[in-house]
Amino acid sequence: MNGGLKFSSLSDQVYAYLRRQMNQGDLLPGSTINIGEIAKQLGISKTPLRDALIHLELEGFVTIIPRRGVRVNQLKFEDVKNAYDAVGLVESFIILECIDKITSTHIKKLESLNDKMIADIHSNNFSQLFKTNLEFHNVYLNVSDNELLKKFVFPIKHRLYDFPRKNYIAEWELRNSEEHRLFIDYLKAGDAFQASRILKDTHWSFEYQKDFIYNFYGVK
C-alpha cells in the first residue's frame, strides 16, 4: 500500500481505508480494531496506522484504550443530538454570512441535486442518496472561506451516516427533500434569515426530526 508514498500520504490512505471498512460494515460499532493484524494486512508499519487512528479518535469514530486496543464507537443519543445542533448552527451561520456569494449557478446545482435525491429515494438507492445529500449541502458550504468551520462539520456528518444501515425511511428522506426545496426558494428570494432558519430550526433540528431519528438510529 505504501508504494513510495510520503509518510503523511500513507497515513491519509490508511485513514480512508478504515473509514471504508466502517462504511462497508467490516468494522462495526462496538468491535475492536487489532492494530497488528491490520498493519500486517496492509503491509505497513504501525506508525501510520496509529496516526490514522488518532485522526479517527479526534472525529469520534473510535476510542483508543491504552494497553487494550482500539474500539469502534457506537453512536449514542447524545452524539446524534449534539451533531444535529452543531451542524445546524454551522450551516445556518454560513448562509447568513455568505448569501451574497450564492449565484444562480449554485441554485441550479442545488435544484438538480435535490431532484436526483428524490429519484434515488423512489429507486431505493439509499447508498447513493447519502452521497447526493452530502453534495447538496456542500454546494453552499463551499462558498464559505472559513476552512475551519468546514473541517469541523464534514466529519460530523460522516459520523452520522458512515455506518451501514438497513432502516432507511423513505418518508423522512422525502420530507428532507421538501425542506431542501423550501430552502432553495428562500435562496432565490435572497432571504438569508429564512433560509438559515429552515436549516437550523427545521432541517437540522433534533426536536423537529426526533421521531424519525429514533427510528433511524435506534437510539432513545
Please give a structural write-up.
This protein has 220 residues and is mainly α. The chain folds into 2 domains: 66 residues, Winged helix-like DNA-binding domain superfamily/Winged helix DNA-binding domain (Arc Repressor Mutant, subunit A), CATH 1.10.10.10; 141 residues, GntR ligand-binding domain-like (Four Helix Bundle (Hemerythrin (Met), subunit A)), CATH 1.20.120.530. It has a 3-stranded antiparallel sheet with strand order 1-3-2. Strand 2 and strand 3 form a beta hairpin. Helix 1 crosses helix 3 and helix 4 packs antiparallel against helix 7. It is globular and about 55 Å long. The N terminus is likely disordered.
Mind sketching the topology for me?
Layout: H1 7-23, E1 32-33, H2 35-42, H3 46-58, E2 62-65, E3 69-72, H4 77-98, H5 104-122, H6 126-141, H7 147-161, H8 170-188, H9 192-203, H10 206-217
Antiparallel strand pairs: 1-3, 2-3
Helix pairs in contact: 1-3, 4-7, 4-9, 5-6, 5-8, 8-9
Task: Please sum up the structure shown.
Helices cover 70% and strands 5% of the residues. It is mainly alpha-helical and 220 residues long.
